[in-house]
Design brief:
Layout: H1 2-11, H2 18-36, H3 45-80, H4 86-99
Helix pairs in contact: 1-3, 2-3
Length: 100
């Protein structure tokens, strides 16, 4: 669930690809199957749980990298945007009126 929360937060900043949504959904699906119908994985529960944990870790790492890159991109672009203060705007308006 935390992966979905992180992806929702990141999607407010930028577009998140389909792969980043599919992998956490598959991990959640395997977890639900293990809880609802444990007999379906009874032949190799440690195998299934082990691979699911590996996939979860890899997806969590990819999501963290993607979110970190998005944050850096937003920070770099927000620093490039010029900021004007109210005083600067007032001075510009006064100069425009004087030139008329």
């Amino acid at each position: 669930m935390s992966q979905f929360v992180n992806l929702i937060a990141a999607s407010r900043i930028a577009h998140i690809g389909l792969y980043f949504w599919v992998m956490p959904a598959l991990t959640l699906l395997v977890g639900l199957i293990a809880i609802i119908s444990p007999t379906s994985i009874a032949s190799a529960p440690l195998f299934v749980i082990g691979w699911t944990m590996i996939v979860y870790g890899a997806v969590e790492m990819l999501n963290a990298i993607k979110i970190y890159q998005l944050q850096r991109f937003v920070e770099r672009n927000s620093n490039k945007m010029p900021t004007t203060t109210t005083q600067d705007t007032a001075n510009d308006t006064d100069e425009t009126e004087k030139n008329k």
